[in-house]
Design goal:
Order of helices and strands: HEHEHHEHEHEEEHEHEHEHHH
CATH topology: TIM Barrel
Number of strands: 10
Number of helices: 12
CATH class: Alpha Beta
Distance between the termini: 11 Å
Helix content: 40-55%
Largest sheet: 8 strands, parallel, barrel
Strand order of the largest sheet: 1-2-3-4-5-8-9-10
CATH architecture: Alpha-Beta Barrel
Oligomer: single chain
Radius of gyration: 18 Å
Number of domains: 1
Shape: globular
Structural class: alpha/beta
Strand content: 15-25%
CATH superfamily: Aldolase class I
């Protein structure tokens, strides 16, 4: 069922697990993630970047697809449609279209402007029962053209944004989007612990969940991370499975050219990746 992220985040903080936020790009992605969540009795967040929203035909098309699948596939676990790294205008448009949760990424503004714009988004969201995620300190790497350098958030700034009444806070703790380079320093748990101390029960968000070692993920969850974003890993497993199908010449046999056949192995690969993540995050049987 389509819900905001409010209860699933509060439950995750209490239960010391994290809800997976998996980015969707098309029908296959959406269906694979929803079915895997249902099979594992796990709450789930479907992340939609502004670029993916455009690619899929617009925010209303995304909401229609997700709502239709929830109904037709009999999905009973809690599902949130979440705008990932939304701009100020993007967040407003996504809320109008029926998203149940939005991230307003004001990390590139100075802290005062970030606070002002976050307040406006919260006011609109609250009136409609939509949850809001805010960001402090840019997340490194690249996400749909949004680039940051793996910064560490200022814990005091985190407190200022948390105090505005957002439901989730993404704070840079050395994490990056995309593949992690060999010389990556790892997550800064000192900063994370300090942010946790100042923000209390605020559900914290870890972006760039692909490639972070399992022990670091578990440590982050123990320090208040309740939402972990995964995108690149699903893309890589989808690409590898699709490549294998083509390289083995299966598209040239019989009706192997049928797009449903071509995309089949990639669909299964996404399901396997999502299941593995849900097990690591501890969200299995938490719906």
């Amino acid at each position: 069922m389509l819900v905001s992220a409010k209860k699933m985040m509060a439950d995750a903080v209490k239960g010391k697990y994290a809800v997976g936020h998996f980015n969707i790009n098309n029908l296959e992605w959406t269906k694979a993630i929803l079915l895997t969540a249902q099979e594992n009795n796990s709450p789930v967040m479907l992340g939609v970047s502004e670029g993916a929203g455009k690619y899929m035909g617009g925010y209303r098309a995304v909401v229609g697809l997700v709502k239709g699948m929830i109904e037709d596939l009999s999905i009973t676990v809690p599902v949130a449609i979440h705008l990932d790294h939304g701009s100020y205008e993007g967040a407003k448009k996504a809320m109008e279209a029926g998203f149940s949760s939005v991230m307003f990424d004001g990390s590139h503004y100075d802290i005062d402007e970030n606070i002002e714009k976050t307040k406006e988004i919260i006011a609109i969201a609250r009136a409609q029962g939509i949850t809001v995620e805010a960001e402090v300190g840019a997340i490194g790497g690249e996400e749909d053209g949004v680039v940051g350098a793996g910064e560490l958030a200022d814990p005091q700034e985190c407190k200022k944004i948390a105090d505005l009444g957002v439901e989730m806070l993404a704070a840079g703790i050395g994490n990056i989007h995309g593949k992690y380079p060999a010389n990556w320093n790892g997550l800064d748990f000192g900063i994370l612990a300090e942010i946790k101390k100042l923000t209390g029960d605020m559900p914290l968000v870890l972006h760039g969940g692909t490639g972070i070692p399992v022990d670091m993920i578990k440590e982050a969850i123990s320090l208040g991370v309740a939402k972990i974003n995964v995108n690149t890993e699903c893309q890589l497993s989808f690409a590898a499975a699709t490549r294998k199908y083509i390289e083995e010449g299966k598209d040239l046999v019989g009706k192997g050219y049928d797009p449903r056949k071509i995309l089949g192995p990639g669909f299964e690969a996404i399901k396997a990746t999502v299941k593995e993540k849900m097990e690591i995050f501890g969200s299995v049987n938490k719906a």
